[in-house]
């Protein structure tokens, strides 16, 4: 709940930025997004799988009295190795990368990417290490402060820098340096936060690493690095592909549309961050009953939240574009919102299937499907983006995400005999369509803000009312009753 409150506040700030700031600086915003996407895609390789090791192996190392057997040192070493190897590889191919970008630099705006692409490296390094520290904090059920530092602060800093560029208070180059400085400060703040929690134990214990543990750790590290990289390619390569194969302005439009659709990810991040360590612990104990309960609860809770948020946005999508500066230009991303939104609903409805495979002894099965889907997504982008532009990138993402989650659901059923769906899953989908159908026939007033309030508010009221009345999510019903009780007191 605290995590969602923080992120809803961030969503409101992000919405103001998306509607009233980013359209004034589409090229700069597109450049920001392309540079940051490098860190998101390359994070598993840059951390050498430390982002997944931090959850998967913590139950094995967990021991407060011994400082968790120097687990922080293990994560630091993995990040160091990943950064060194990645830097060496990028150095070898650096001239080829720049040549590829320069061949499509047709004007001054397009020449910005090869000019400033080197800044993607420090951005990626600081972001990746910060994310590992944030994931490590979730082992102690601490997800709010890391979210404030990693996500919320970004929603404040980025628009401030872009406003300064738009108003010509600072140059674009200065803004980019400010973005790098912010990512470095976030990483350092997370280190100090773990020290404040008394969970920063810098005491390596080589004796704890038995030959069996070393072997298992090495195998999972390779999976975490390669598999995680494949997953990022399968789900997050779209912005980079649009920015490198089309115009930076298109990347800005795509990112704005993607932001609106991805607003439904807020509950996903919160529940995943809070549940990942529990999945690892239940798997370690082979507690199938608790795994099934958690699997089904997370799936139905996320699906209800997803339909509520996405449906409210889609019912007023045209009015949202009308109130934006350069709204006509940005409205070319309308169907990006639809395709990415559907991909998010698919991911939310299938729940924790990915975590169940990652943190189990069957994780190598996921590597094959991840690799296939990464290749498929890149191929789809290479095929669709030149033909369909930003809509092609969104369709490629939808196909990749849906296919991967379908395969993951099948694998979880095959290995654990668990599946995330209940009879209420279908009723959530039906309720979403019923609410949208009822709102669709309401005549518009022609006043955009009023129409947004009426149509989105009515959709939320109808769908939320149906979900509450039929107890489609018992957890959400209980949470609302708890909040009502607190307000009465």
Overall morphology: globular
Radius of gyration, taken over Cα atoms and rounded to an integer in Å = 22 Å
Number of domains: 1
Number of strands: 0
Number of helices: 23
Helix content estimate:
over 70%
Strand content: under 5%
Major beta sheet, specifics? none
- The structural class is mainly alpha
The end-to-end distance, rounded to whole angstroms, is: 19 Å
Q: Which regions are unreliable across 5 or more consecutive residues at pLDDT < 50?
A: none
pLDDT averaged residue by residue: 84
Question: Could you give the topology of this structure?
Answer:
Layout: H1 2-20, H2 26-46, H3 50-56, H4 58-61, H5 71-102, H6 112-116, H7 120-138, H8 144-166, H9 172-196, H10 211-236, H11 238-245, H12 248-262, H13 265-285, H14 288-314, H15 317-322, H16 327-330, H17 334-349, H18 353-358, H19 363-388, H20 390-416, H21 423-440, H22 448-469, H23 474-488
Explain this structure to me?
With 489 residues, the protein is mainly alpha-helical. It has one domain (2-421). It has 23 helices and no strands. Helix 2 (26-46) packs antiparallel against helix 10, helix 3 (50-56) packs parallel to helix 7 and helix 5 (71-102) runs antiparallel to helix 7 (120-138). The longest helix is centred in the N-terminal third of the chain and has 32 residues, at 71-102. The radius of gyration is 22 Å and the shape is globular. The two termini are 19 Å apart. The model has no long low-confidence stretch (mean pLDDT 84).
């Amino acid at each position: 709940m605290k995590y969602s409150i923080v992120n809803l506040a961030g969503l409101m700030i992000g919405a103001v930025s998306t509607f009233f700031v980013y359209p004034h600086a589409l090229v700069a915003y597109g450049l920001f997004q392309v540079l940051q996407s490098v860190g998101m895609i390359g994070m598993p390789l840059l951390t050498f799988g430390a982002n997944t090791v931090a959850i998967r192996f913590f139950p094995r190392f967990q021991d407060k009295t011994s400082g968790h057997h120097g687990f922080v040192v293990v994560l630091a070493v993995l990040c160091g190795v990943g950064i060194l190897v990645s830097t060496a590889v990028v150095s070898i191919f650096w001239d080829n990368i720049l040549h590829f970008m320069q061949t499509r630099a047709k004007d001054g705006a397009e020449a910005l990417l090869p000019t400033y692409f080197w800044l993607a490296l420090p951005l990626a390094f600081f972001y990746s290490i910060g994310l590992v520290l944030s994931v490590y904090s979730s082992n102690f059920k601490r997800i709010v402060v890391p979210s404030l530092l990693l996500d919320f602060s970004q929603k404040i800093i980025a628009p401030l820098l872009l406003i300064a560029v738009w108003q010509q208070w600072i140059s674009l180059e200065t803004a980019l340096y400010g973005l790098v400085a912010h990512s470095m400060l976030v990483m350092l703040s997370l280190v100090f936060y773990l020290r404040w929690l008394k969970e920063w134990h810098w005491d390596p214990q080589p004796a704890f690493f038995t030959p069996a543990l070393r072997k298992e750790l090495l195998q999972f590290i390779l999976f975490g690095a390669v598999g995680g990289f494949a997953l990022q390619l399968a789900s997050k390569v779209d912005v980079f592909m649009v920015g490198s194969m089309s115009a930076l302005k298109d990347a800005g439009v795509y990112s704005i549309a993607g932001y609106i659709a991805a607003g439904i990810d807020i509950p996903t991040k919160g529940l995943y961050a809070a549940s990942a360590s529990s999945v690892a612990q239940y798997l370690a104990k082979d507690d199938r009953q608790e795994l099934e309960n958690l699997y089904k609860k997370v799936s139905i809770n996320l699906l209800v939240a997803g339909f509520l948020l996405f449906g409210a946005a889609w019912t007023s999508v045209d009015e949202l574009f009308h109130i934006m500066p350069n709204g006509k230009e940005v409205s070319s991303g309308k169907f990006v919102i639809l395709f990415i939104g559907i991909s998010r609903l698919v991911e939310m409805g299938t729940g924790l299937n990915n975590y169940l495979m990652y943190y189990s002894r069957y994780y190598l099965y996921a590597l094959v499907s991840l690799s296939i889907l990464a290749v498929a997504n890149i191929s789809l982008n290479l095929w669709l983006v030149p033909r369909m532009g930003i809509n092609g990138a969104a369709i490629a993402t939808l196909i990749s995400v849906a296919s991967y989650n379908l395969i993951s659901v099948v694998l979880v059923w095959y290995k654990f005999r668990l599946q995330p769906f209940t009879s209420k899953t279908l009723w959530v989908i039906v309720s979403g369509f019923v609410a949208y159908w009822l709102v669709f026939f309401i005549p518009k007033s022609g006043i955009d803000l009023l129409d947004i309030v009426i149509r989105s508010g009515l959709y939320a009221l109808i769908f939320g009312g149906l979900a509450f009345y039929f107890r489609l999510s018992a957890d959400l019903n209980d949470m609302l009753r708890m909040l009502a009780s607190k307000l009465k007191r």
